[in-house]
């Protein structure tokens, strides 16, 4: 090899990182075109190039996502007319395992604004383009087989059976830890704890936050037919009492109520709370056939419940939800189904009205009613879901709302 080729080879290997070595072909072709080297010399340089480097398998990013297409009917008696809407949602997530102890994830979601309780968009605005937001971004450290720590904007670290207190779209920001331990006799202990940042004030050092702890137990029968899980969460808010109301309360313009008690725009209470919940499940070994020709089978039955009581004051301070699930435990394959029905009641100062399910009377407190949800499997990764809400305020002049949602869900 001539001195010229040796120097060119060194130049290419130094200038072109292994991770982008595929760009070397383009550069060599340009040099041949300009008669700096000939095609034979370019071939020799290609042959002597080191192989392109790749990320170790454990560091590869994994992509996942889902789409939802929805028809929605809002029949709110506080409005002059019922509202019919076409809506949709897009979410994309990336998971990365850095090594055996460290992992990370981040995701993006659609949304008409920064409201943490909704990622849905409405067909409107003359086909105008829509927004994408950072939905979550967190790092997780697995200290041992029984302890992990998460920091950032993550999926809700609490174990939840329902959305009485927490809308499923809320991804809290802060620090959390999870611990698990086998107790013997098919019993396990688990615990969640952490601190969530609710707001950062530039003119006040007393930023509102939420400290939580949730110890729990789970049990599974020897044959796996029955299982049980229960936990009790304790919530301790800091610098919330007498502070300004937090953002993203229910929309008065949409016919909903902002029920939490305020004094000159500030919270009258601190909203520390105690919230136990449970779930009991039965997997039916010999599925029961329903509706004959339709071939509907029941292989699962479950019940769940949740209670909350605010510890800071003595009136309008409690809430509960109880429900039943029947069908298949998970709807993943064609023909699988699950029906879920629940009753709920949430008093005005039992909990902050920034966090309950926004589909249930706009996420308001001081409401009662019921919900029925039917999920149907179409194919692997695709299914239908029908959700019906009926809600009524516990007091005041506002009237009832009925909400119907029909969804096509696709996962990839």
Provide structural commentary.
With 412 residues, the chain is mainly β. 8% of the residues lie in helices and 49% in strands. The chain folds into 2 domains: 3-47, no CATH class; 65-411, Porin, CATH 2.40.160.10. The protein is built from 3 helices and 19 strands. The chain has a 16-stranded antiparallel β-barrel with strand order 1-2-3-5-6-7-8-9-10-13-14-15-16-17-18-19. The chain has a two-stranded antiparallel sheet with strand order 11-12. The longest helix has 13 residues, at 3-15. The two termini are 51 Å apart. The model is unreliable at 10-20 (pLDDT under 50).
Gist of the model:
Helices cover 8% and strands 49% of the residues.
Q: Which helices and strands appear, and what pairs or packs with what?
A:
Layout: H1 3-15, H2 24-33, H3 39-47, E1 61-76, E2 83-97, E3 102-110, E4 121-122, E5 132-142, E6 147-153, E7 173-184, E8 187-197, E9 209-220, E10 226-238, E11 262-263, E12 266-267, E13 273-290, E14 296-310, E15 318-327, E16 337-346, E17 367-379, E18 382-393, E19 401-411
Antiparallel strand pairs: 1-2, 1-19, 2-3, 2-4, 3-5, 5-6, 6-7, 7-8, 8-9, 9-10, 10-13, 11-12, 13-14, 14-15, 15-16, 16-17, 17-18, 18-19
- Put simply, the count of helices is 3
- Rg measurement, Å: 27 Å
Major beta sheet, strand line-up? 1-2-3-5-6-7-8-9-10-13-14-15-16-17-18-19
Secondary structure category: mainly beta
Task: Compute the number of strand runs.
Answer: 19
The CATH superfamily of the largest domain bears the name Porin
Unreliable parts: 10-20
* SSE pattern: HHHEEEEEEEEEEEEEEEEEEE
Instruction: Kindly give the count of domains.
Output: 2
CATH fold topology of the largest domain: Porin
**CATH classification class of the largest domain:** Mainly Beta
Q: Tell me the fraction of residues in β-strands, as a range.
A: over 45%
Query: Major beta sheet, specifics?
Result: 16 strands, antiparallel, barrel
């Amino acid at each position: 090899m001539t001195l010229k080729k040796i120097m060119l080879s060194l130049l290419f290997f130094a200038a072109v990182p292994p991770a982008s070595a595929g760009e070397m072909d383009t550069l060599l072709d340009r040099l041949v075109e300009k008669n700096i080297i000939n095609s034979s010399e370019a071939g020799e340089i290609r042959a002597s190039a080191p192989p392109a480097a790749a990320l170790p398998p454990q560091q590869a990013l994994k992509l996942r996502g889902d789409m939802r297409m929805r028809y929605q009917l809002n029949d709110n008696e506080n409005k002059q007319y019922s509202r019919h809407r076409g809506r949709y949602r897009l979410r994309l997530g990336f998971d990365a395992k850095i090594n055996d102890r460290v992992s990370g994830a981040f995701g993006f979601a659609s949304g008409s604004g920064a409201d943490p309780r909704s990622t849905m968009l409405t067909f409107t605005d003359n086909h105008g383009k829509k927004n994408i937001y950072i939905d979550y971004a967190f790092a997780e450290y697995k200290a041992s087989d029984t302890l992990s720590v998460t920091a950032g904007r993550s999926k809700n670290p609490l174990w939840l059976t329902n959305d009485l207190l927490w809308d499923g779209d809320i991804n809290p920001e802060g620090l959390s830890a999870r611990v698990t331990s086998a107790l013997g006799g098919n019993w396990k202990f688990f615990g969640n704890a952490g601190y969530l940042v609710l707001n950062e004030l530039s003119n006040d050092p007393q930023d509102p936050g939420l400290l939580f702890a949730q110890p729990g137990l789970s049990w599974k029968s020897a044959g796996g037919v029955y299982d049980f899980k229960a936990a009790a969460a304790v919530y301790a808010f800091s610098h919330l009492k007498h502070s300004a109301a937090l953002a993203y309360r229910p929309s008065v313009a949409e016919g909903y109520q902002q029920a939490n008690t305020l004094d000159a725009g500030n919270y009258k209470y601190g909203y520390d709370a105690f919230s136990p919940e449970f779930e009991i499940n039965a997997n039916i070994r010999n599925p029961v056939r329903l509706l004959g020709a339709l071939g509907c089978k029941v292989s699962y039955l479950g019940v769940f419940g949740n209670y909350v009581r605010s510890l800071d004051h003595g009136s309008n301070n409690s809430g509960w939800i109880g429900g039943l699930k029947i069908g298949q435990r998970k709807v993943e394959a064609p023909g699988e189904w699950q029906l879920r029905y629940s009753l709920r009641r949430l008093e005005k100062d039992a909990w902050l009205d920034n966090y309950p399910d926004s589909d249930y009377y706009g996420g308001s407190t001081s409401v009662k009613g019921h919900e029925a949800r039917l999920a149907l499997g179409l194919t692997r990764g695709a299914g239908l879901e029908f959700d019906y809400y009926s809600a009524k305020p516990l007091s005041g002049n506002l009237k009832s709302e009925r909400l119907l949602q029909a969804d096509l869900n696709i996962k990839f």
